[in-house]
């Protein structure tokens, strides 16, 4: 029994490192295909529409509600210290530095990442990818590169939009309690936000978008075992991309704080 457990553990370790090697090869192939002709501009624009426009409603609702809830929860402690006027600044810093990028990435991981994993996984198990390969179409270029580029480009735009919508939700709550004007609110909100904060959020969103798309594409492109494998590919795409997003967020916070301290 002990040998059996050791054997299972060893196999899992081997499978993990084999998976890491395959992901490395997958990413390397992406960068090689990215700069080779033909450039699938039409499909890339279509994927930008799928990733960006079709996510607006969910991001709008989520960002607006988070703005209201975060403001409601932050007001009582500030009022107790007589610092209610600092509420817009707190909201601005929180959304630009953390909430905007992280919430957008998590929404995209759940919606876009699962969609990519399920779509490519379905095409893989039904042999549509093999058929594309036989018809002289590069399936990796057409299916993977276009989705990764579109997600990487669109996520920073969605992040800025989510941040704006969230701060508008916060403004309505602040206005309802303090009758603060829109101009005064945004002046106070951005008074403590630096260009470093904005660029840090944009750069992190680029990495989040790349992570979500590359993980979803890898899981879908290598799906097996029929329809059950499609479900596993979508689920693993979401779980693994969310894990990587939190890891990247931790690293990004440390680097940003170090730059702020210089």
Account of the protein in words:
- The longest helix has 40 residues, at 139-178.
- The protein has helices spanning 2-34, 41-52, 56-80, 87-125, 128-134, 139-178, 182-189, 195-221, 226-260.
- It has two domains: 1-34; 58-260, no CATH class.
- It contains nine helices and no strands.
- The chain is mainly alpha-helical and 262 residues long.
- Helix 4 (87-125) crosses helix 7.
- The mean pLDDT is 86.
* Largest sheet properties: none
Shape: elongated
Number of helices: 9
Percentage of β-strand residues:
under 5%
Mean pLDDT: 86
Rg over alpha carbons:
22 Å
The string of secondary-structure elements, in order, is: HHHHHHHHH
Portion of residues within helices: over 70%
Low-confidence stretches: none
Quickly count the domains. Answer: 2
Entry summary:
The chain is mainly alpha-helical. The protein folds into two domains: 1-34; 58-260, no CATH class.
């Amino acid at each position: 029994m002990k040998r059996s457990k050791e054997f299972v553990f060893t196999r899992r370790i081997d499978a993990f490192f084999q998976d890491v090697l395959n992901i490395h090869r997958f990413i390397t192939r992406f960068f090689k295909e990215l700069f080779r002709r033909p450039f699938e501009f039409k499909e890339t624009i279509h994927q930008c529409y799928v990733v960006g426009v079709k996510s607006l409603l969910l991001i709008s609702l989520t960002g607006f509600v988070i703005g209201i809830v975060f403001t409601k929860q932050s007001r009582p402690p500030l009022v107790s210290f007589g610092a209610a006027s600092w509420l817009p600044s707190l909201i601005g810093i929180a959304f630009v530095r953390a909430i905007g990028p992280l919430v957008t990435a998590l929404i995209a991981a759940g919606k876009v990442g699962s969609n990519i994993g399920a779509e490519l996984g379905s095409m893989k198990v039904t042999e549509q990818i093999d058929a594309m390969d036989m018809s002289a179409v590069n399936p990796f270029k057409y299916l993977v590169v276009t989705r990764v580029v579109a997600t990487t480009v669109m996520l920073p735009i969605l992040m800025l939009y989510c941040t704006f919508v969230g701060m508008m939700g916060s403004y309505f709550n602040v206005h309802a309690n303090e009758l603060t004007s829109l101009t005064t609110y945004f002046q106070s909100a951005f008074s403590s936000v630096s260009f470093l904060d904005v660029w840090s959020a944009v750069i992190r969103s680029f990495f989040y978008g790349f992570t979500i798309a590359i993980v979803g594409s890898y899981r879908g492109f290598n799906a097996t075992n029929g329809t059950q494998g499609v479900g596993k590919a979508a689920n693993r795409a979401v779980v693994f991309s969310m894990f990587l997003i939190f890891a990247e967020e931790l690293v990004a916070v440390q680097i940003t704080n170090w730059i702020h301290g210089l």
